[in-house]
Amino acid sequence: MKKIISTKNAPAPIGPYSQAVLTGNTLYTSGQIAIHPESGEIVKGSIKEETKQVMENLKAVLTAAEMTFDDVVKTSIFISDMNNFSAINSIYSTYFDDDTAPARETVEVANLPKFVNVEISMIAVK
After folding, report:
1. Element (H, E) at 89
2. Which residues are the signal sequence here (predicted)?
């Protein structure tokens, strides 16, 4: 049985998908990009500011599912330029404890929705 997770504290989906799906004790988040949930606008500025908005959007989705970053077991990071890896990682790393950080892959892609620079999705288990 699946439960759709939705919160106004993260951007509304821009297509036919849910912010997250909870099945059993496992949460699958959709990829989040740097859309500000209140304004619906893309956060422009540095890659660090963009990454922080992505992580805050994911935090809101986790919270709606009564989870935290401590529950995250896997992340997928899609970036438009591998040269941004260090800057993205510097923000991403502040959300996790080094000793218990989730498994992860980081992939450079040709384009992302709305031509943003970073998109991150997560799998969490309670």
Report:
1. helix 85-92
2. none
